[in-house]
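hey m, so remember when u said the tokens were messed up on ur end? i reran from scratch. heres the input so u can diff it against urs
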Amino acid sequence: MTRTYHLYSTLAIALLLAGCQNAATRIAPAATATKPVPEVAYYCANCALLASRESAPLQIYAAVFKYTFDVASGTLQGMSASQEPLDAERTEDTACAVSGSKTNDSAMDFRRTGIFIVGGTLVSVDSPSVGKIAIEQLQPESGAVLFAGSKSDADEFQPCVGATLADSPSYEAAMHLPRDAVISIRVASQSRPIKLTLPAQFSPFTYLRYRAGAVIPVPARLATLSYDIQKQRVVLSYRSVFAKDSAVRKLDLRAVFPASLGGAPGEYESVARFTERSQAILADLDQCPPFLVTGEPCADPNRKPNPGIFAQ
């Protein structure tokens, strides 16, 4: 099944920064004189902002985040020195490349998480906070390289693990995987499934800064997970989706990093305050309702974020 708004124009191309403490700020070109485009600040490595076409049925933005991690004993150890590039330019190219899948990178939203593996077969997905999570095998779409689930609102994926086509079958979870998801994978050389545990204290997100003064955190949902077992490398891509709103003055693309993954206090910030702020952001994002195709329910200037985020 083909979704009519699968690919969109890129508002800002991927920006790869050496660190996440300093922002690079650009003013995106306005689409029309009557629709002001928010300023965008990137406090993240390998992220981009996409915008739906003016003719699209849904007028939305999507902040895209992509992170590559090294793995040891089933645990993400830290940011890989070799990050998979984010190629968010609109394209019809469905081939796997060094940057993974260009069609995945340039898609505006995914309603569930796609899981792609080289060197093993997915067995199950569990979560301490949610319990067992259903998975569905993805099927080839007729006449296309992309894969689609059986649901009427099926996502479309290109099952790439870097430049390699993922082992078949690939799967889609029944939801966006939570931060504490544990993935069990069968590997031919192992008598028991191996487990991959996602970093529960890591979460990309977007601040929506409204002209009236409200600052609202909006979650980024896990869109795709690719795992090369031989290389012990995991790539996670996320989407933070929200409606175009002239009331929004500025967008900050950010991520919460625990110390174990390289997170550190900002300038003039104590370790205690860094920990308090990080936990407050995670708690605030966790209470957001499930994703809607029209945008994140938490992208609401009238809601009250966790006060620990902005405490001094």
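this time it looks ok to me. The CA atoms of residues 95 and 261 lie 31 Å apart. if urs says something different then somethings off w ur setup not the seq
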